[in-house]
Amino acid sequence: MSTIKKIPARKTIALVAHDHKKPDLMEWAIYNKTTLAKHELIATGTTGKLIEDALDRPVKKLFSGPLGGDQQIGSMIAQGEIDVLIFFWDPMEAQPHDSDVKALLRLGIAWNIIMACDRATADFIMTSPFMHETYDAAVPDYTNYLHRQIKADE
Predict the structure, then answer these.
(1) Are residues 9 and 78 in contact, defined by beta-carbon separation less than 8 angstroms?
(2) What DSSP string runs through 84-141?
(3) I need a labelling partner for 11 at 20 to 30 A (CA). Which of 32, 68, 80, 148 fits?
(4) Given 56, 70, 118, 136, which residue is catalytic?
(5) How distant is the alpha carbon of residue 14 from its chain centre?
(6) 70 tagged catalytic
(7) Under a CB-based contact definition with an 8 Å cutoff, are residues 13 and 83 in contact?
(8) What are the angstrom distances between the C-alpha of 11 and each of 37, 137, 154?
(9) Is the pTM value of this prediction over 0.85?
């Protein structure tokens, strides 16, 4: 069972990139500058500063990923504060905070948010008609999970 969350036409977009993917995300953001200007942008530390400079517009900057920025975004996803996650991650290089990265991606799936981990998917999202209008997203209802019987160890 799920509920419906109305995602507004003006979306809150979280932008994250691993170090080797930051140039790719900057290039993508500049290419999508006009569309991104219509939305609220949130990013992890260094990525946020780079995007803010590249787009010449304010970006809400959180901590750097390894210092908790990925977890901050994950918390915002769980609270329903993020509509779209664009996360250019590097599959070829281990990160010191791989467990945080995995948790962030898991939360994106658990809460059924719009998510891209590569440029092709991000391009499809940005060019979708849904990106420019209100969208009714199905949000899983975890009530049964939260109220399940928990047996104490004997």
Answers:
(1) no
(2) EEEEE--TTS--TTHHHHHHHHHHHHHTT-EEESSHHHHHHHHHSGGGGS-EEEEEE-
(3) 68
(4) 70
(5) 4
(6) yes
(7) yes
(8) 11, 13, 49
(9) yes
